[in-house]
Every structure is written in structure tokens, then in C-alpha cells.
């Protein structure tokens, strides 16, 4: 994870995987990192998205934290409680007009923008502070909703975006992504904050011909304050053509869009996304350019359904999670971005016909944008291009290849985002007990080297890291979410009881959490180092 300071006011993101209210950079108290699990139509009651904690602070006392906890409830409402007393502050229910006829399950994973204009730790509307909450509706509808929660005890609707504003929007499963983008010819809020939205997944009850090529095959950037559409990408089928036409983006996008700020200027300049055709997409952005010339992009990998002969075959893999991105620096070769992702069809939890896999792809040109011609000339990485890592053989992936792949067990699926820290990837998987009990099964967490796919930690405590250490089974039997890292600064007056192996480089306690369980082994993140640099010219 790379952190950069913002040049104006501090704005923090809180989500099911990063709580702005407790982020180390903000309060040095608790921090959470990881990712949520998208909705399962067949198992929507078996999983509830994680709660989110937002710190509203106290006037004149930045050391005091007064959290409000937001929780998507199983019946499809959003509840706010006082984090200190447990008192219910408010409940939000989407308008009935936004619901599908067969609406069920909870709302989508939350993304919270906490904007503290004067960095005093206290949220005060009169000082220009804002707390905005963004989420999709998962199996309840095809809209993204933004709430203004700047006041602790009441909310108002900031905006609602549906298919009338976002062409080809489907069921909104993905977590929204907040970023900064600067479009030269668009009217934006003063901070240039945007929300990146994935097109979603077509309603399974809809006609079969709408599943591919008509719904959900878009990426949108909307103004964070108004919801106005600023830019979009995807395949073009009608008069509602996107700004960046990507002919092969004909499958829905069920997972969040990943935004990177590679040059540290405070604005995102690279996007990555996955779709249910098991395709991976890269989009390079040129900030301060007009909408028509803002982006270039293309398909960088096709690893399943889009290449398969027909649905239901062994190669008809689908992605319902987003790629996890990490930088791999090598002494013998240029650095690359490792894209870690696993396949698994969330609409067919009990399927055993597809050979699902865990993938790690290498994307070069880490800091260099590609032109559209360069994207068009490059062929996507195929499944056959990747080295198969045998979990029973002690042979790592080649350092020179395009990446690696690893077979999962029959019926085992990756349904949550991976999490990589210090070169160690932690990935949760789910394997149903049977077709009669598809929402219960065996949950595992794989702990592997991102560059080689080999075991990374001594999970069985035998003082040797070998093939027996590739994964650990969890006690929980319902579908587990992704791994989260929880970081706590030890209280100075107390002696930490955490083993030294679970302390990071600056002495904070580190815990890896999956749902209700804390793992006995964890890969601590390194110390966060603020780095300030800018390249003005090259001589």
C-alpha cells in the first residue's frame, strides 16, 4: 500500500476494508484493511457486509474519538449506531421505486468519504466538513445511492444514479471507489473528487440475451457531490456510447474498480477492473485533459468465460472479485505490478464443473502510460500463457514469465478480493459442503508469495515453511469475506501481549481477521513512510 499526502484538506475513505475513522494516518488508533464480499443471490442471507466506523471527533479535542457505526442489515436497510453507547441514530431504507420485484438480501458494501477541511479531527458542517456514504443495492436494485451523513443523528439523500443517468447499469453489486480525477472540460466539485462505479450484473430473472453485451458492461466516473456522469468506458451498442470504447467489454462488472495514484500528485492515473467474463482491464488516465482524450485502455487478460467455448465448461471461469495490486521490485529485472485475483461464479455457488483458479499476472510499464495504439496492438494474456504452480511440488513460478496460476479444489471458489502486504498475498476461498447446502462449506485462507505462488508463512508452526503451509482452514462455515488487517497502537501504560511476530516495523499490533476469526498468523505491513518527490524534468 502506498500513501501520499493531499495538498489541500485531509480526506479519508472509510469502507468495509479501510475505516477512515480509525485509520493510522488519521488517529494512530485502530486501522482496518481488506475487502468485502459481493452479494450472492442464492446465499444473500448467509452473508452481511462488514460494518463501517466513522469518527466524528470532538471540538477542541482531536484526541477524542466519537465513532458512528454503519451496518447494512439483512432486510436491506442501513443502520447507524453510536459507537460508544450503541444507541440507534437513524435507519435508511431505499425508496420502493428503486427496488426490483424480487429484491432480497442486504445492501452493497459501503464506501465513506470523510472530508475534514481544516484537519482538526472534528466533523463540523459549518467549517466545510463532509461525510458522504456511497453504496450499491446488490440484489435489491440497479442504482447507486449517496447519502449526506455529515450530521451524526440525521441523513439526507445526496444523489441517486440509475440507468437513466448511467446507461446499461445493472444490479449494483460492487463497492464504489472514491478517487480524484481532473477533467479539463467538465464541471466538478472544488476537490475534483469522483466516485468510480462498476456496471454490475444483469438480473438472472431477465431474458438470457441481456446477460452478455447489454447490461453491466461499463465503468463510470461520477462527481462525488452531485452524481453527474463525467466519463465512462465500455462496449458501444447503441447511441449511448461511452467515452472510451472497449469493444471486448461485453460482460458485466461485479467488483469494485481499482484506482492507483502512481506519481503521487493526489489524482488517480491508472484504473484496473475485472468482469464476469474473467477478463482484466487496464485504463491509463491523463488528468487535466478533455473528456474525449482523458483515457486510453484495453483488455490485458482473458482467462475464462470470454475465451471458453460455452458456459458451464471447465474453462468458463468468472471474476466476481477485484484484482489486488502490489508492486514487485526485483534486482535482476524491472519492477512490475502484480495483479492477484481468483475466479468463482457467485451465481453458481454449488457448481463443480468449472476449474476455478487463483491468478497472479505481471503488468509492466509500472509508471508509464500507454497510448491507445499500444493498447490495441497488445494481445491479452491467456490462461495458457501462465505458469501452472503445482501445490504438491516445490517448484516456484519463473521470474521471467507473465505470471502464474494455481488450480483450486473441485467446487472451491474465490469470491472476495485478495490482500497483499510485504509481498505476501492472503486470499480467502469457499468450498460448499454440497449442492443441498451451497451456502455452507469449508473456508480457507491461502497465504502465498505474490511473485512465486509458493507458501509464505509457517502456518503449522513446525519452524519450516514448506508445501504444508499454503493454506489454513477456518472454523466458520458460512461464506467468509476477505482478509482484513487490523492495526492497533499499543496503549503506552500497558505491556502488549501480542507475540513479536505480530508487530509491525513501528511497534503496532497487527491482526489478520476474516469475518469473526482472527488468524494465528499474519503478514504485518511495513512502516508507512511519507515520501515527497516530483520529477520536473530529465536532463
Helical residue percent?
Answer: under 10%
Q: List how many beta strands DSSP finds.
A: 32
Strand order of the largest sheet: 1-7-8-9-10
Structure class:
mainly beta
The number of helices is 2
The separation of the N and C termini measures 31 Å
Low-confidence region ranges: 1-10, 14-40, 208-213, 528-539
The outline comes out as globular
Mean pLDDT, nearest integer? 84
Rounded radius of gyration (Å): 22 Å
Largest sheet: 5 strands, antiparallel
Percent in strands: 25-35%
Written description of the protein model:
This protein is an all-beta fold. The protein has a domain at 1-154. Helices cover 2% and strands 32% of the residues. It contains 2 helices and 32 strands. The chain has helices at residues 24-27, 372-377, and strands at residues 10-15, 30-33, 52-55, 67-72, 78-82, 88-92, 111-116, 130-136, 144-148, 156-161, 177-180, 193-198, 218-223, 229-234, 244-245, 258-260, 270-274, 279-285, 295-302, 324-328, 336-342, 357-363, 381-382, 387-388, 403-407, 419-421, 424-434, 437-449, 471-473, 484-488, 509-514, 517-518. The strands form 7 sheets. Strands 1-7-8-9-10 form a 5-stranded antiparallel sheet, with no helix packed on it. A hairpin with a 2-residue loop joins strand 26 and strand 27. The longest helix is centred in the C-terminal third of the chain and has 6 residues, at 372-377. It is globular and about 60 Å long. The protein starts with 9 loop residues before the first strand and ends in a 21-residue tail after the last strand.
